[in-house]
Design a protein that fits this description.
Length: about 170
């Protein structure tokens, strides 16, 4: 089975852009410590120089944010293993706002024997996913590594690509 990683468009001037507004919850999201994420997250202000396109996926510093359209797709596909937290993104100068969802995939113990680690940083240089360990998960992250990659099964990556979401990219996992 092939695996893909999910990524977003980074620093595209046409897209709305989050400043460091979510810095307080960043490490908890990256480590999947969902119990430490506040129940209520105040509205997040976007950078003044943000563009006008609201992408369906934003992924900065371990914070995966998805649009309503993306969330509806995940719900339709019965992806039930993500932790969701609604967040309002707003642009004060332009007076508009939209609802997004923090969508944190589970971290699972799924690395196989062929995985290659960077000994200095403890990150994975080459992923070898043990298919027997992923169960029914189509979207996940790897447990006990510092890598931020969100991993998709090939079949799910194909369904995702067919949606033509704005700012959503998939790449073969190395």
């Amino acid at each position: 089975m092939k695996f893909f990683m999910l990524d977003s468009a980074h620093i595209v001037s046409e897209y709305v852009n989050i400043d460091n507004e979510l810095y307080d919850i960043e490490s908890n999201c990256r480590c999947s410590k969902i119990q430490l994420i506040p129940k209520e997250i105040p509205p997040v202000e976007l950078k003044d120089e943000s563009g006008d396109i609201w992408p369906d996926f934003m992924y900065e510093s371990g914070l995966p944010l998805i649009s309503k359209r993306f969330k509806d797709f995940l719900d339709d596909e019965k992806i039930e293993n993500l932790f969701y937290k609604e967040i309002t993104l707003k642009r004060v100068k332009k007076g508009d706002e939209k609802k997004y969802w923090l969508a944190i995939p589970p971290k699972i113990k799924c690395l196989g024997k062929g995985t290659v680690f960077d000994e200095v940083f403890g990150s994975v240089e080459h992923f070898e996913i043990d298919e027997k360990r992923i169960g029914y998960y189509n979207i996940f992250r790897c447990e006990n590594v510092s890598n931020p990659e969100i991993i998709l099964t090939e079949s799910f990556a194909e369904k995702l690509k067919a949606q033509n979401f704005e700012g959503v990219y998939t790449f073969p996992l190395k």
